[in-house]
């Protein structure tokens, strides 16, 4: 079962698991996603993952594994309305955990985020770093992590928690965590000056969505309950990102610099050694390769 399977990451996971011969059940209320993969063995339930109807789906389908991606993902919205964010991200996750416990799910895989770390300064951050989120989104994801661990502790529910860095790739919306890539690609393809907030020295760690899908696949083969970063372990400044994307544009235009946004993390780079040690996972796609693919995708949808 994949919650949020019609979203950016969820639709890639659905495709990946179909390719690996799994039967996939998707729960999605189409709040922000709309990518239904047309494959005979995907079953879509258009419902809210917090609703009572999810119980019926568990009874009917008896999923072996639950990959929980559906969420309120917007950092700014979380700060504007922490109650809504908590209801979606914390209460909704508890609802699923209860059902996983009742229906003896073999593993619960959770999409957490680098936002749980907050500002850590430069250099790679590993899973043992002090957790100090600077947004309610980071707080609600961290709370979910604690609930998952408590369910595992009290009811032996096996789990894998992935803390993703900035995920990018085809079908990505511009308002999610790696959104700067589709925005820059779209603007530069059209000759529109991209906006850089601050001086462009802030860094991000971009990981391709196919690498994320592969990590989820490996998680289902694993026996351990653990928390792992899924990242490239490279920090790319926004200025460098602009340079990489301009190189593949026919007529690149200069960026416009605007005042730095409050609440933006300055440096982001996640250590990914644990995912290699525990799952044998390593990122396969370079940022340059991924951006060329992204540019083709954006053009193909008329962006
Ligand atoms: N994109 C990133 O860079 C990134 C980084 C770190 C963590 N994550 C996490 O990965 C997960 C997926 O992110 P995404 O970028 O694919 O987001 P997305 O918005 O593209 O996908 C989320 C999906 O969940 C569905 N959904 C939302 N609320 C729902 C509800 N109440 N009931 C049922 N379905 C609902 C949406 O319709 C959408 O299809 C999220 O949990 C997010 O916090 C994403």
TrEMBL record:
<protein>
    <submittedName>
        <fullName>GDP-mannose 4,6-dehydratase</fullName>
        <ecNumber>4.2.1.47</ecNumber>
    </submittedName>
</protein>
<dbReference type="Pfam" id="PF01370">
    <property type="entry name" value="Epimerase"/>
</dbReference>
<dbReference type="InterPro" id="IPR001509">
    <property type="entry name" value="Epimerase_deHydtase"/>
</dbReference>
<feature type="domain" description="NAD-dependent epimerase/dehydratase">
    <location>
        <begin position="1"/>
        <end position="230"/>
    </location>
</feature>
<keyword id="KW-0456">Lyase</keyword>
<dbReference type="InterPro" id="IPR036291">
    <property type="entry name" value="NAD(P)-bd_dom_sf"/>
</dbReference>
<comment type="similarity">
    <text>Belongs to the NAD(P)-dependent epimerase/dehydratase family.</text>
</comment>
<dbReference type="GO" id="GO:0008446">
    <property type="term" value="F:GDP-mannose 4,6-dehydratase activity"/>
</dbReference>
């Amino acid at each position: 079962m994949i919650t949020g399977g019609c979203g950016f990451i969820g639709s890639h996971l659905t495709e990946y698991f179909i390719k690996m011969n799994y039967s996939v059940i998707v729960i999605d209320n189409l709040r922000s996603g709309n990518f239904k993969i047309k494959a005979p063995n995907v079953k879509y339930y258009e419902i809210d993952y917090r609703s009572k109807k999810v119980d019926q789906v568990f009874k009917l389908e008896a999923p072996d594994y639950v990959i929980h991606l559906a969420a309120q993902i917007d950092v700014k919205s979380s700060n504007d309305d922490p109650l809504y964010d908590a209801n979606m991200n914390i209460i909704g996750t508890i609802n699923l955990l209860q059902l996983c416990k009742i229906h003896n799910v073999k593993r619960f895989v959770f999409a957490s985020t680098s936002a749980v770390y907050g500002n850590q300064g430069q250099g790679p951050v590993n899973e043992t770093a002090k957790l100090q989120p600077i947004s309610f989104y980071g707080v609600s994801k961290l709370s979910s992590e604690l609930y998952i661990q408590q369910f595992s502790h009290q009811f032996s529910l096996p789990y894998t928690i992935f803390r993703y860095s900035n995920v990018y790739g085809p079908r990505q919306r511009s308002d999610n965590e790696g959104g700067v890539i589709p925005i820059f690609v779209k603007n530069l393809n059209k000759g529109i000056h991209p906006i850089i907030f601050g001086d462009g020295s802030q860094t991000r760690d971009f990981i391709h969505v196919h690498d994320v899908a592969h990590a989820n696949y490996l998680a289902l083969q694993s026996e351990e309950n653990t928390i792992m970063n899924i990242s490239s372990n490279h920090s790319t400044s926004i200025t460098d990102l602009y340079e990489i994307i301009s190189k593949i544009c026919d007529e690149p235009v200069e960026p416009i610099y605007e005042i730095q946004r409050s609440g933006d993390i300055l440096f982001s780079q996640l250590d990914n050694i644990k995912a290699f040690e525990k799952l044998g996972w390593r990122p396969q796609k370079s940022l340059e390769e991924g951006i060329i693919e992204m540019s083709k995708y954006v053009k193909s949808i008329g962006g």
